[in-house]
Amino acid sequence: MAKLSLFARRRRRVRTALKAVSGNKPRLSIHRSGRHIYAQVIDDAAGKTVAAASTLDKEVGSKALGKTGASSEAAADVGKRVAVAATAAGVTKVVFDRGGFLFHGRVKALADAAREAGLEF
């Protein structure tokens, strides 16, 4: 079996820690590619996605996408949108699953915007 990459080890470590402290709260899961950023609120007990937003949404669209991809402003917009959708679905408390991504830049901008829009984590 091949060794896990640093990213995969970090992702595994984060998810294991989340399972220990999450209780029954849904998780706000983040995925960041070079060009886009995605966020979903997932209820693991039911196996359902409660809310989702990304820079692929037409409302976010190309206004915040530059030549290098999604910016921190686009990530903040996605954070607001996912928080509004989760609140509309009745979810206010979540655990933040950053996956294997470091908490800075676009990931931090998304998290801060989601907090400001009403999600608690």
Range of strand content: 15-25%
Give, in order, the helices and strands. HEEEEEHEH
Total count of helical runs of at least 4 residues = 3
Q: What structural class do you assign from the helix and strand content?
A: alpha+beta
From the alpha-carbon coordinates, what is the Rg to the nearest angstrom?
Answer: 14 Å
Low-confidence stretches: none
InterPro entries: Ribosomal_L18, Ribosomal_uL18_bac-type, Ribosomal_uL18_bac/plant/anim
Subunit structure: Part of the 50S ribosomal subunit; part of the 5S rRNA/L5/L18/L25 subcomplex. Contacts the 5S and 23S rRNAs.
Protein name: Large ribosomal subunit protein uL18
Pfam families: Ribosomal_L18p (PF00861)
Provide a descriptive summary of the structure in words.
This is Large ribosomal subunit protein uL18. It holds the Pfam family Ribosomal_L18p. By secondary structure, the chain is α+β, with helices and mostly antiparallel strands. Helices cover 36% and strands 22% of the residues. The chain has 3 helices and 6 strands; from the N terminus they run H-E-E-E-E-E-H-E-H. It has helices at residues 6-21, 72-88, 106-116, and strands at 27-32, 37-43, 48-54, 65-66, 69-70, 95-97. It has a 4-stranded mixed beta sheet. Strands 4-5 form a two-stranded antiparallel ribbon. Strand 4 (65-66) and strand 5 form a beta hairpin. Helix 2 (72-88) runs parallel beside helix 3 (106-116). The protein is globular. The relative contact order is 0.21. The mean pLDDT is 91.
